[in-house]
Amino acid sequence: MSAKEQPTTSGLENGHREPFVIGVAGGASSGKSTVCKMIIDQLRDQRVVAVTQESFYYGLTEDELVHVHDYNFDHPDAFDTELLLSCMQSLKHGKAVDIPNYNFKTYKSAPNARKVNPSDVIILEGILVFHDSRLRDLMNMKIFVDTDADVRLTRRIRRDTIDNGRDIRVVLDQYSKFVKTAFEDFILPTKKYADIIIPRGGDNDVAIDLIVQHIRTKLGQHDLCKVHPNLYVIQTTYQI
Ligand SMILES: [N-]=[N+]=N[C@@H]1[C@H](O)[C@@H](CO)O[C@H]1n1ccc(=O)[nH]c1=O
Question: What is the DSSP letter of 138?
C-alpha cells in the first residue's frame, strides 16, 4: 500500500494510529536539519520523533580508516539501508526501535545506542533518504531541500574547518572528489520523488508554515476518524 493513502489504525500495536512519516532529503549542508527543527518546533503539541540517516553509517574498517580521505561518505553504499528500513518499518507499525549511533570523530558505529519510541509523526532526514524505493514507500510526505551549491559549499567549509577543525584543503578535496559528484549522481536525481521542494531550506518560513499546516490537516483527519469512523467517511466523501 502506498503511504499516500490515509494513515490507518489497522494492525498497530495498542490501537494507536499509523504514524505520519515525513522524509527530508537534499544535499549536504542544504539545511535539512534546520527544516526538521523548525517543523518539530511548530508541532510541539504532537508526539514527533526525528531519525537521521547519518546514524546508519557503516563503521569504517581499520583499512578504510587508514585511507579515510579516499572513503566516499556520500555514496548510498556508505549507509546500512537494510537496518534503516527495518527500523522505519517497525516505527511505522508502532514498535519501539534501537537506533545505532555513528561517531563522526572515530568513524565507528555503536549499535543499539538510542531507543526511539513510536510517535504520531516520524521525520527521517538525510542526503539519500529517497534513494531506496522501499524507504520512499513508507513516507506520507517527501520534502526536498533545494539550496544553491555555493551556499552548501560555504556552509560546509565553515562547519568542517571552524567547527570540526579540518584542513581547508582536505574539505575542498573531499567536496570535489565525493560530495559534488555524489550530489549530481545520487542526490539530485531523487528530487523528482519530492512532494514539496523548498528553495533556501530553513530560510523559507512560508514553505515550512505550509508544510506544518498540511501535517496538522492529515493528523486532524485521523483524530476525527478516532472520534467516530462514520464522521471520517462523511469527510472523505465530501473531499471526493
Ligand atoms: N565527507 N563527507 N561527506 C559526508 C556527507 O556529505 C555528510 C552527510 O552525510 O556528512 C559527511 N560525513 C559523513 C560521515 C563522516 O564521518 N564525516 C563526514 O563528513
Answer: T
Percent of the chain at pLDDT exceeding 90: 76
Q: How far, in Å, from the CA of 57 to the mean position of ligand 1?
A: 9
The ipTM is 0.95
pLDDT in tens, 161-207: 998 888 999 999 999 999 999 999 999 999 999 999 999 988 999 99
* Contacts made by residues 99-106, CB under 8 angstroms, sequence distance 24+: 99/51, 99/55, 99/56, 100/55, 100/56, 101/55, 102/54, 102/55, 102/56, 102/57, 102/59, 104/164
Protein residue with its CA nearest to atom 4 in ligand 1: 73
Q: Is the CB of 21 under 6 A from ligand 1?
A: no
Tell me the pTM. Answer: 0.87
pLDDT, tens only, 103-119 = 998 999 998 789 999 99
CA–centroid distance, residue 141 to ligand 1 (Å): 25
- CA nearest neighbour of 124 among 175, 186, 50: 50
177 lines ligand 1 (CB under 6 A): no
CA of 102, closest atom in ligand 1:
16
